[in-house]
Amino acid sequence: MQIKMKSFLVWVMVSLFYLASGQELPAYRIFNSQGQVSSFGALAQEASERQIVLFGELHNNPISHWLQLELTHALHAIKGQALVMGAEMFEADNQLLIDEYFSGLIAERNFRSEARLWNNFQTDIRPLLEFARENGLKFVATNIPRRYAALVHREGFEALEKLSTQARSYIAPLPVAYDEDLPGYKAMLEMSAMHGQTNPNFPKAQAIKDATMAHFIMKHFAPGNTFIHFHGTYHSNNYEGIVWYLQQTDSKPTLLTIATAEQQNVDALDESNIGIADFIIVVPQRMTKTH
Predict the structure, then answer these.
(1) In angstroms, rounded to a whole number, what is the distance separating the alpha carbons of residues 118 and 128?
(2) Domains observed in the chain
(3) How many whole angstroms separate alpha carbon 192 and alpha carbon 48?
(4) 242-253: pLDDT as tens digits
């Protein structure tokens, strides 16, 4: 009886604290690039008016994954079959597996056993893939096969020239443009130096991923469509990474970037996050993780 009474008193005290302070616990807030509070509706409307939407996620953040699915639903309601989906989480040499699974030629169990799926596939990625399959939408595997990114990390871009014609079909066309002075790549090099592992190929391995994702986005993009792409937020933050490579193309499609950031307080956008994307989804640092 005493234990129950103590638990009740704790509950009352916590409730009174939040009632007295008027404090709420928002799971997220959306801001525009200037740091002004925005809304999901505004984000969805602007996304529907752009040709390519780059949705940067925090891989273990449930809010990222939920809002990706909600935005996909909203865009499909507006664009219908003119919506194309793609993701970093699938490597280009798995496109055949995705297509065969979508067409019913192979069972899901075969797809799952062969596609080198991320460990959060079931909870975070599968809902997006299944939405595309169930609605007859194209889903593009955009990432470079990890073995070739590892090759660049070891030997640089030059090593890609050793690959077969078939292997090179899974990466951006060679030679790959590269700007070592982009702040994101410079920061990666500096970070590796801080850990005593300076490797000039470290940011190049990131760049070949960015270049390859941009390549396959453009390969499957067509005027009149909206292509929504899902990836780690660092691949498009500050309009670098994938954005930089898309801007090197002749067509220069209209883009919308979405970033995800964690903050201790979500009431206002931290100065460090202002301008990192067209829309910034801010999530409390204590938000639970999916893996």
Answers:
(1) 14
(2) 27-284 (3.40.50.11550)
(3) 39
(4) 999 999 999 889
